[in-house]
UniProtKB/TrEMBL annotation:
PANTHER family (alphabetical): HCA OPERON TRANSCRIPTIONAL ACTIVATOR HCAR, TRANSCRIPTIONAL DUAL REGULATOR HCAR-RELATED
Family to which this protein belongs: Belongs to the LysR transcriptional regulatory family.
Gene3D superfamilies, A to Z: Periplasmic binding protein-like II (3.40.190.10), Winged helix-like DNA-binding domain superfamily/Winged helix DNA-binding domain (1.10.10.10)
Lineage of the species this protein comes from: Bacteria, Bacillati, Actinomycetota, Actinomycetes, Kitasatosporales
Protein name: LysR family transcriptional regulator StgR
Matching InterPro entries: LysR_HTH_N, LysR_subst-bd, WH-like_DNA-bd_sf, WH_DNA-bd_sf
PROSITE patterns: HTH_LYSR
Length: 341
């Protein structure tokens, strides 16, 4: 019979009582990525700092957690045994932090809630306005920075509270620490440069984009979930994802880049009007962008309750979660959109 692997204990058989959560986060990141460079990038720290934290954890536990070679990183038996415990500890810490993240201001009011709406003019703004009506005593502050991948990292770092976007496009390790509520299957469209032949159509069949290079945020680390959705949509249709372009901030810069590069841009059908371009919905099939309301697991705040109620109310009233016949959506996204985390 093989003996169960054990984590070596210190004096008197006791494990360290004051393990820093940062060390456990470093360990979990490396366990999931099996690569120190990718784990460091995920945690927004230098690789040397991450390696130092893992070494320190190993010293404090008196156990080797990984076998490192020049080609791969493999958990030891003790590392595999530690992983589920580390995850539970970090989950409990996240729940604790979220429970006390509410804070109170003068008169006991809940602290302001920071909500990322991605871009002006999208349905997220309507949800926020309705939430403000439902919870008039809450201060719900809006900001506009596109990309759920970037927003998710900020939510988990405590710099942001709520965002909207394609939850299925996030890494599983991020999703495990976030909660979501499906909001809408949002039809997708294409922004065409003025004078483009397809601009004469009222709606653009997806097949008509064959041979085109369509910009979908490639190269922007904040919008990885959107670029991934574009790759899935274009696969097998002869459509290329355009190479990275300078990030245009504001309508004037957007118009300048559009006029210069002349690439169509993949957007949501409610994307605001931009200079030097014209928006046309996509059809045959109608591609759908799954949108969820996303926040940190364990966050307790009346503003989150109001946002969830507003999203549910508007989704039901306007049929946002109804998938049109023949509508395209990745199977993994469809499964997630049917569930509440």
């Amino acid at each position: 019979m093989t003996a169960e692997p054990r984590i070596h204990r210190g004096p008197e058989g006791a494990l360290p009582r004051d393990l820093e959560p940062r060390l456990l986060r470093a360990f979990v990141a490396v366990s999931e990525e099996l690569h120190f460079t990718r784990a460091a990038a995920r945690m927004y720290v230098a690789q040397q700092a991450l390696s130092r934290d893992v070494r320190r954890l190993e010293r404090e536990l008196g156990a080797e957690l990984f076998v490192r070679t020049t080609r791969q990183v493999t958990p030891t038996a003790e590392g595999e045994r530690l992983l589920p415990y580390a995850r539970r500890v970090l989950e409990a810490q996240d729940d604790l932090a979220a429970a006390f993240a509410r804070g109170t201001g003068p008169g006991g009011a809940a602290r302001p809630l920071l909500v990322d709406l991605n871009s002006p003019g999208l349905i997220c703004g309507r949800i926020l306005e309705r939430a403000r009506e439902l919870a008039p005593d809450c201060e719900l502050m809006a900001r506009f920075e596109s990309g759920l991948t970037g927003a998710a990292a900020e939510i988990l770092a405590g710099r942001l509270d709520v965002s909207f976007g394609r939850y299925a496009g996030l890494e599983p390790a991020l999703r495990s620490r976030l909660a979501q509520q499906p909001v809408r299957y949002e039809p997708m469209a294409v922004l065409l440069p003025l004078g483009h032949p397809l601009a004469e159509l009222d709606a653009v069949p997806l097949g008509a984009l064959a041979g085109e290079s369509v910009y979908a945020g490639a190269g922007n680390p904040r919008t990885l979930e959107w670029t991934d959705l574009a790759h899935r949509l274009f696969e097998g249709r002869g459509i290329e994802v355009a190479a990275p372009a300078p990030l245009a901030v504001g309508p004037e810069e957007f118009g300048r880049i559009m006029a210069k590069n002349r690439n169509p841009v993949l957007v949501a059908v409610d994307f605001p009007a931009m200079p030097q371009s014209i928006l046309r919905p996509l059809i045959d099939p109608v591609p759908l962008s799954p949108v969820s309301l996303v926040w940190r697991k364990g966050l307790v705040h009346p503003g989150v309750d109001a946002l969830r109620a507003a999203a549910a109310e508007l989704s039901a009233a306007e049929g946002w979660l109804h998938r049109p016949a023949g509508g395209w959506v990745p199977a993994t996204d469809a499964l997630i959109m049917m569930s509440l985390d």
